[in-house]
Design goal:
alpha+beta, Pdz3 Domain, four-stranded antiparallel β-sheet, two-stranded antiparallel ribbon, 10 strands, 51% helix
């Protein structure tokens, strides 16, 4: 029963995230006069379709993505050669993608990722509104026997930065502290209205009987009740936090701080959703938030084959006042897609190893 529930939840989460992403592209394309031949949720064979005002809305078999098929002259020729019908459109012919000004195409490309970030923000509003207290960054209950207290951390300190990185929420602090070397960190705090730099603050390392070790930060933080102003503020801060750790994780991957074996693919994501289902609906909602913001940020990074790559090409066209030759765009996009497919296969392999042999 849990497996069936996990499958349903996974399809709903992926479906909602993809739907919002593609709707962002779609609505800006239509407002920019670009014809959208097909608005698809899913990939592969078509399960259902309906044509309305020149756009075929479809649901496809594989719930692993979606797309807007925007009309270009090249696309139109390919459709005609393949014998596929181009849906009629009330304003008549035209509305080619390449005819829209670069700045409009840029808005169309950015709209999808932005909508994912907006979705994450609204889901955070729902999640945080149901909590009893929202954790702040203000220090409370410092253990007098802890190394943190001996290093100068005091109750009432508002933690602003850890090792030079700004912290937006409490989880930001714990995330940065977990990344410290030798269990030491430089903390920038606000104390009595002034910024104070606490250098080389040390934290305790606890070792359990089974050999497991963890960092004991030696303090707690104050909490505030959700409210008309505190909840939206916290939702914004958490949105920034999730966005930040995605960038940091990518930097860690490319710099070798974490290995490629730590990547997770579709199998790992479904496995995480399964764990969230068993833990409760708050965790499911939190997983949906992470997936949505992750998809939004990832698609803003200039990776060939994704929205970010197209955003880069269009931005160059806007500045240079000439489009990048199609053969160059196609070659770069193909190389990017092949690299992404390789990473997905590697991540999926690692997921299966962890699933069956760990």
């Amino acid at each position: 029963m849990t497996g069936l529930l996990t499958a349903i939840v996974a399809i709903l989460v992926f479906g909602a995230v993809v739907l919002v992403h593609e709707w962002g592209h779609f609505i800006l394309a239509r407002r920019s006069g670009i014809r959208v031949v097909e608005f698809a949720i899913g990939m592969g064979p078509m399960l259902w379709s309906k044509t309305v005002n020149g756009t075929r809305y479809s649901i496809r078999l594989l719930p692993i993505g979606g797309y807007n098929r925007m009309l270009s002259r090249e696309e139109e020729e390919q459709l005609r050669q393949a014998g596929e019908e181009i849906p009629e459109y009330e304003p008549g012919p035209g509305g080619y993608y390449e005819d829209a000004p670069p700045w409009r195409r840029l808005l169309v490309l950015v709209a999808g990722p932005v909508m994912n970030i907006v979705l994450g923000f609204f889901l955070l509003l729902i999640l945080l509104s149901g909590q009893e207290l929202l954790a702040t960054r203000q220090v409370a209950n410092v253990d007098p026997d802890s190394l943190a207290a001996a290093s100068g951390l005091q109750e009432g300190d508002l933690i602003l930065e850890v090792n030079g990185r700004h912290c937006f929420v409490y989880q930001d602090i714990s995330y940065e502290l977990a990344r410290t070397e030798n269990d030491r960190a430089d903390l920038l705090v606000r104390r009595d209205g002034e910024k104070v730099l606490l250098e080389n603050v040390q934290f305790d390392r606890i070792t359990l009987e089974d050999g497991y070790t963890y960092l004991d930060i030696g303090f707690q933080v104050y909490g505030v009740k959700p409210g008309l102003f505190t909840t939206p503020k916290a939702a914004i801060q958490y949105t920034i936090y999730y966005s930040k750790i995605i960038f940091v994780s990518l930097v860690d991957l490319f710099t070798g701080r974490v290995g490629i074996n730590n990547l997770s693919g579709p199998v790992g994501i479904v496995s995480a959703i399964n764990e969230a289902v068993m833990m409760g609906w708050d965790e499911v909602l939190n997983m949906a938030i992470l997936i949505s913001i992750n998809l939004g940020i990832f698609n803003l990074i200039p990776i060939p084959g994704l929205d970010g790559g197209q955003i880069l090409f269009t931005g160059v066209e806007l500045v240079a006042r000439r489009p990048i030759p199609a053969r160059i765009r196609n070659a770069v996009n193909m190389a990017g897609l092949m690299a992404l497919v390789f990473l997905v296969l590697v991540a999926s392999y690692q997921d299966l190893i962890r699933l069956f042999f760990s």
